[in-house]
Structure formats: C-alpha cells, structure tokens
Specification:
Elements: H1 6-16, E1 28-29, H2 32-42, E2 49-53, H3 59-67, E3 70-75, H4 81-87, E4 94-98, H5 106-113, E5 121-125, H6 131-139, E6 147-153, H7 154-160, H8 169-177, E7 178-186, E8 191-192, E9 199-206, H9 216-226, H10 234-241, H11 246-255, H12 269-284
Parallel strand pairs: 2-3, 2-5, 3-4, 5-6
Antiparallel strand pairs: 1-8, 6-9, 7-9
Length: 285
C-alpha cells in the first residue's frame, strides 16, 4: 500500500471513516520524492534508533523501518493506532506508542526499552503549531538526539536558520543548541489536505553541550529582554527590561562593542554572550 499516492490515502481514510483533524495539524505527506529526501537527510543506518513524532498512517514510518534498526513511532490520535498497526504489521523493528510526545519522558522511555542503543535520531512530519515546543523539548534533553530531521513550515525553517540581521529569539535558541540547515523545499501540494503554506525539510545537528560560553538561564533572560520590542533599538529594550537609566543602557551597549542604534535581530550569539558578560561585570562592580 503506497500512501504517498493520493487516491490510496483517500480510499483508506474513507474506509476507516477518518477525517484529518485540523486541531491536531494533520497534513499527510503524499509526495514520494519529498519522502525520499527526508529519509536521505536522516542518513539512516541499520544501527540507528529512530523516534518519529506523529506517525499518522505510517507513510514515513515504513521508510524509517526499512532503513534503521529500531523505530519508536509516537501517535497522539487514537483513531490512527489501529490502521497504523495494520500498515506496519510486517515490520518487527517498530514500537507504536499511543501518546502525546510533549507529555512523554522520552529519555526514560528510550533508556528503559532500548538500552543497547547509545544514541538516537528524530525524524518526523510534525504539526506546524507545535514546532517551537517540540524543538525546545528535543534540544534541552540531557541526552540529545544525534540528528533531527523535521518537516516544518517554510517561514519557521527560514527563521531558525537566520543569520545576524534577521535573528529572532527562536533562531538564537535553536542555534545555541544545534546547527540548523534547510535541506529542501516541500510545496503545499505535497500534502493532503494541503496546508496554506509551503514546508521545508529542516535538519539540525544538536550540540551535546550548550554552545554559548554563558549561564543558560541568564543568557536567555537577557535575550528575551533584548527582543521585547523587535522594532526598537537594543538600547531602548535594555533600559525598559532591565530597569536602567538610558545612559546606563547606552554604556552597556557601547561596552559590548555594539552600535548605539543596533537592533536585537542584528546580534550574533557571540554578541549576546559578550553583552551578558559586560552586564554581569557591571552588576558585580
């Protein structure tokens, strides 16, 4: 059964009396070329343990089973569990988990059930509205995935991979924990039902440790203050967010080697780390 063939998928949906749920962000992939690109980006090997978030009807799951040693397929929609088991019945290397990824202790699950695997990859077509939360959950794990490959909204992929000049809190957060790359465009016509936007295959290589030379909580606290009003200058945001006189906020920006008119989206990770060091030195003086 080739579920990347639209008529086959529609027939299955009809037989099962299942309609894609908008509230769960269900857009099923019906593009064999895109599917092959996802699998290629994951660089699967027989020794790999793979976690899939939102297995759907098993279109991607089947390809993951063929290329890896073990797949843990997580599906929140209980309507899909039975057909998922039917589609994947010929595979012995898959565990179907009936549950919400965001509520699972994924580290404990993998350590308990698959202790022989020393690392794991995450490959998934995820709901757009959960992208930020899923990325956060994955990137702050104590034992991080060795590779993450996700289908995400094109705009989100561009934001994640942005360079200084177009940075955001999301870009800073993701790039502090991983090296992101957009692999390929996947148009809206590649899904059923078709979403209103195009997607990209996003590949992230997580760092095993926080890459910025700074305390994580202090770093992100400062970043959030700095981005509190994107259209304002960094100086103005720091003055308001840190409750500083404008003269002290201006001195802080200058001491970090930044322009007095710089805006938060222009800063690199190194700039934020330097700004934090200057701020902490000033507070302890």
């Amino acid at each position: 059964m080739d579920l990347t063939e639209l008529n086959t998928l529609k027939s299955l949906l009809s037989r099962l009396h299942v309609r894609p749920a908008d509230k769960l962000g269900q857009n099923f992939l019906v593009d064999r070329v895109a599917l092959d690109k996802i699998v290629a980006a994951a660089a699967l090997e027989p020794s790999n343990l793979v976690v899939e978030i939102g297995a759907g009807f098993g279109t991607l799951t089947e390809a993951l089973c063929k290329g890896s040693g073990q797949v843990v397929a997580i599906e929140k929609d209980r309507r899909l569990i039975k057909p998922l088991r039917f589609v994947l019945k010929k595979f012995q290397n898959v565990e179907i988990v009936d549950g919400d990824f965001l509520k699972l202790d994924i580290s404990s699950l993998l350590t308990t059930h698959y202790p022989l695997f020393t690392s794991f990859k995450v490959v998934a077509n995820i709901p757009y509205y959960l992208t930020g939360r899923i990325l956060e959950n994955l990137l702050v794990l104590k034992k991080k995935p060795e590779l993450i490959v996700l289908l995400v909204q094109k705009e989100v992929g561009e934001r994640v991979c942005a360079a200084p000049g177009e940075m955001s809190v999301l870009a800073v957060a993701v790039q502090a924990y991983s090296r992101p790359e957009m692999v390929s465009l996947v148009t809206r016509e590649s899904f059923f039902p078709s979403p209103e936007v195009d997607s990209v295959i996003l590949k992230l290589v997580p760092y095993q440790n926080f890459v910025v030379e700074a305390d994580e909580k202090s770093f992100f606290r400062l970043v959030k203050v700095g981005f509190s009003h994107r259209r304002k200058t960094l100086e103005n945001n720091l003055a308001a967010g840190l409750h500083l006189p404008k003269t002290l906020a201006a001195a802080l920006v200058k001491s970090a080697g930044l322009s007095p008119t710089v805006r938060p989206q222009e800063l690199s990770l190194a700039d934020w780390a330097r700004l934090l060091r200057v701020w902490e030195r000033g507070r302890s003086a």
